[in-house]
Amino acid sequence: MTDYFTEMNFEPIDENQVEAHQLMLMVRYLRQSGYDELFDTQFNTERLPPPASKELIKNLKSRSVTVHDEKCSICLAPNENLTGNEKFLTLPQCNHDFHAECILPWLERTNTCPLCRTEMKTDDSEYEEQKKRKQRKQENVEAIHNSMFG
C-alpha cells in the first residue's frame, strides 16, 4: 500500500519549511475569518477618497457670480472680468463656493472640499462603511476617555 503523499502526488514538507508553512496556514485562517478587512482598515492608509455622490453633485446649489463675491479658491480668477454666465456652486457641508467648471471635475475625482477637506457623501458603500467604523471607533475612544477622566 502506498502512503498518502505518494497517492496524492504530494511531497512532504521539508523540516526547514515547517515554520513558513504554519505561518501561511495562520495567514489563510486570519484572512478567512475577516481579519484581513480589519487589518486593511487599521493599516491601509493608501486608499484615496472616492468621487462625490452623483446625487450630491446634481443637487448642488447654484447661483450667479457677482463682482462682490470672493474669488474662486481653485482658479483664483478675478470677478471683474465677468461675462454674465459664470455660476458658483455651493458645497452643502461647508458652504464654500467655487466656479462650476472648477469644482465639478474635482468632485468627479474626490469627495472632499478642496479648501477645507470636509468630506461629502459618496456612492461607494464600502468607503461609507469604513467611515462609519472609523467614527464608531473614535466615539468608543472618547467614551473610554470620558469614563476615566469625567
UniProtKB/TrEMBL annotation:
It comes from Polypedilum vanderplanki (Sleeping chironomid midge). The lineage of its organism: Eukaryota, Metazoa, Ecdysozoa, Arthropoda, Hexapoda. This is RING-type domain-containing protein. The keyword Cell wall biogenesis/degradation does not apply. Residues 72-117 form the RING-type domain. The keyword Methyltransferase does not apply. GO terms for biological process: ubiquitin-dependent protein catabolic process. InterPro entries: RING_finger_E3_ligase, Znf_RING, Znf_RING/FYVE/PHD. PANTHER family: RING_U-BOX SUPERFAMILY PROTEIN, SI:CH211-59O9.10. Keywords: Metal-binding, Zinc, Zinc-finger. Residues 124-142 have a biased composition (Basic and acidic residues). It comes from the Eukaryota. GO terms for molecular function: ubiquitin protein ligase activity; zinc ion binding. GO terms for cellular component: nucleus. It holds the Pfam family zf-RING_2.
